[in-house]
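Students often ask why we bother encoding 3D structure as a string. The short answer is that it lets us treat folding as translation between two languages. Here is a chain of 320 residues written in the first language.
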Amino acid sequence: MIYTLTVNPAVDYHMKVTGAALVPGSIIRSESEEMFPGGKGLNVSVILSRLGVENVALGFSAGKVGELLKALISDFGVRCDLISLPEGETRINVKLDSSPETAVNGKGPEVPDEAVTTLLGRISSLNSNDMLVLSGNLQSGIKDLYWEIGRRCRKNGVRLIVDAEGESLSGTFDSQPFLIKPNLWELFQLFPDSPADSSDEMKDHDSFYVSLMRRCQEKGVKNVLLSMGEAGAILLTEEGEVLKATLSQAHTPVSTVGAGDSMLAGFLAGWLFGEKESDRAARALHFACACGTATAYQAHLAKIEDIKKVLNDIKVWRLN
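And here it is in the second language, the structure alphabet:
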């Protein structure tokens, strides 16, 4: 079973606003409204469900907004196992779909130690047949949570997948995560001795990127999936194989929100699909780029028909 963890989930309330200036102090009327479960781990869960991969969403919820969030998660076909907090309200993120886009993100409730202990107990029940996705960064009060989760996953043989940045990411390396998914900025953030302006000056230096990915492996990571936006993605496997994926036909992105989460979900689905072990890595990378690209072309997370449309636009080949 695949489990995803979203520590500070939200209800994302989207309001479409066109033709009106966002002037403070004025009344602006939206043209339409939609609500979605919000949070990187929940995005992964939604895409996995749309790809037919059963999964369970872990995390915390609070108050009446938390009950609404649980209902929204279920509406998207995801099994929900959120721990109810005794106080506060699950946050609401207001997204104004305007030009330019504007958002007000809620802070979210405080997570007491008792709730963290309950979460860790549930994670301790996972075993070697399970995968756990840690997606997003942690609130300041529980910054060591990923480290503790990683320790328990390694002890029980759970395959750990991490999509975070900075210490939230590097703090899991001792747990030998099965997969990490940095973007270029997050990869360079891990190694301050590398050129800070690499994204502009070293776009074609794949070998340099791979050298940094290998440094992640030296610290314990098994597989590294590097997201490079419109430039595609590079996968360094545990066996040392290096694969790259690019788009043969690109279109103008609508929004990059959720694209990285979709890429991660696509990778896991592709890894699990099919029976041939020999092409597992290439298949996973192919699905990863298809899902990430499809979401970038939508206002919200891609649906299965959107993903199918771009599958043939993805080219995967070996760099080594």
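Translate back mentally: The chain has a mean pLDDT of 90. Keep this in mind for the problem set.
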